[in-house]
Amino acid sequence: MDYLTFFLAILHVYRALCEEMFWDTTVKLAENMSLECIYSSLDTLTQMEWFKINTTSRELIAIFSPIYGGVVKQPYTYRVYLLNSTAAPNDMTLYFHNASEADIGFYSCFLHTFPHGHWEKVIQVVASDSFEIAAPSNRHIVSEPGKNVTLTCQPAGKWPVQQVTWEKIQPHQIDILTICNLSQGKSYASKYQREIWSSCSQDMRSTFIIMPHVMASDSGLYRCCFKASTGDNETFVMRLTVTDGKTDNRYILFVAGGAVLLLLFVILITTIIVISYKRRRRQKELFKESWGAQNKAGNNYRNPNPTNQTSDGATEDVYVNYPAFSHRPKTRI
């Protein structure tokens, strides 16, 4: 009987080593980082624990009780804080100060609630160079607050789809929204802090998620990943922008101001062109009037004597008509 117990213990350890770890959120390692854990249900929290998941065991980091408060265990004292636990009963976010590569790994936010029992969120912390950067978005969706937003995508390939994953991408973390295993027809309900509706069936060729009553905090990049049984993968990235009233007013004022400035600029350019054209036309008219007056004055002061002379240089006789006088001397008395 002792051999059977030992064998079962070995089998349990082997399963723990070989079993693939599944996580809800991937966080990029930073000196000051936060592991977000927000419980969205209305259940009553009785106790919460933070663990670091090792290969065969779980290392207790912190424990919190709404009645007795929180305690941080060694060696995490003075490096780890539960800042929001007292202000918001459903916010059990863990804050790291002076984090290092030794903090890379998997973490578990484990909640005991009433009446639904326990709730767990697993977070993976990776090195900054291993953090996946999102590709440029393929589509942009704009919505007003309070609307239901539907994001859809469909693979271009004809290969059989085995798994579909929806994620929200942020600069410091990636949250899994939903996972659909088409081969089994099962979907995984994520631990994301807001409500997500999704579809999952074995025969579907496209997938969608619905976010009811969106808010400005829902803005960001969303990624849809298709994984085929043949090993092929296909990814779509889309950006969602949820506007608010202030943004709309600023945008309207910006557009209206731009239109007014453009109109004033057009009026100014048109006025300058018209004034310049009239000025050139007036100068042309004054030049014509001045030129005409100069020609008229030249005609009035022209020399009256004829300038034409005989070409052969011969002179003509000039005759003067005067009375004839007597040449007889006067008699003296």
Automatic annotation (TrEMBL):
<dbReference type="InterPro" id="IPR007110">
    <property type="entry name" value="Ig-like_dom"/>
</dbReference>
<feature type="transmembrane region" description="Helical">
    <location>
        <begin position="251"/>
        <end position="277"/>
    </location>
</feature>
<dbReference type="GO" id="GO:0050839">
    <property type="term" value="F:cell adhesion molecule binding"/>
</dbReference>
<keyword id="KW-0325">Glycoprotein</keyword>
<keyword id="KW-0732">Signal</keyword>
<dbReference type="Pfam" id="PF07686">
    <property type="entry name" value="V-set"/>
</dbReference>
<keyword id="KW-0472">Membrane</keyword>
<dbReference type="GO" id="GO:0002891">
    <property type="term" value="P:positive regulation of immunoglobulin mediated immune response"/>
</dbReference>
<dbReference type="InterPro" id="IPR042842">
    <property type="entry name" value="CD226"/>
</dbReference>
<keyword id="KW-1133">Transmembrane helix</keyword>
<keyword id="KW-0597">Phosphoprotein</keyword>
<keyword id="KW-0130">Cell adhesion</keyword>
<dbReference type="GO" id="GO:0002729">
    <property type="term" value="P:positive regulation of natural killer cell cytokine production"/>
</dbReference>
<feature type="signal peptide">
    <location>
        <begin position="1"/>
        <end position="18"/>
    </location>
</feature>
<dbReference type="GO" id="GO:0007155">
    <property type="term" value="P:cell adhesion"/>
</dbReference>
<dbReference type="InterPro" id="IPR013106">
    <property type="entry name" value="Ig_V-set"/>
</dbReference>
<protein>
    <recommendedName>
        <fullName>CD226 antigen</fullName>
    </recommendedName>
</protein>
<dbReference type="InterPro" id="IPR003599">
    <property type="entry name" value="Ig_sub"/>
</dbReference>
<dbReference type="InterPro" id="IPR013783">
    <property type="entry name" value="Ig-like_fold"/>
</dbReference>
<keyword id="KW-0677">Repeat</keyword>
<feature type="domain" description="Ig-like">
    <location>
        <begin position="136"/>
        <end position="243"/>
    </location>
</feature>
<comment type="function">
    <text>Cell surface receptor that plays an important role in the immune system, particularly in intercellular adhesion, lymphocyte signaling, cytotoxicity and lymphokine secretion mediated by cytotoxic T-cells and NK cells. Functions as a costimulatory receptor upon recognition of target cells, such as virus-infected or tumor cells. Upon binding to its ligands PVR/CD155 or NECTIN2/CD112 on target cells, promotes the cytotoxic activity of NK cells and CTLs, enhancing their ability to kill these cells.</text>
</comment>
<keyword id="KW-1003">Cell membrane</keyword>
<dbReference type="InterPro" id="IPR036179">
    <property type="entry name" value="Ig-like_dom_sf"/>
</dbReference>
<keyword id="KW-0393">Immunoglobulin domain</keyword>
<comment type="subunit">
    <text>Interacts with PVR and NECTIN2. Competes with PVRIG for NECTIN2-binding. Interacts with ITGAL; this interaction mediates CD226 localization to lipid rafts.</text>
</comment>
<feature type="domain" description="Ig-like">
    <location>
        <begin position="31"/>
        <end position="109"/>
    </location>
</feature>
<keyword id="KW-0675">Receptor</keyword>
<keyword id="KW-0812">Transmembrane</keyword>
<keyword id="KW-1015">Disulfide bond</keyword>
<dbReference type="GO" id="GO:0009897">
    <property type="term" value="C:external side of plasma membrane"/>
</dbReference>
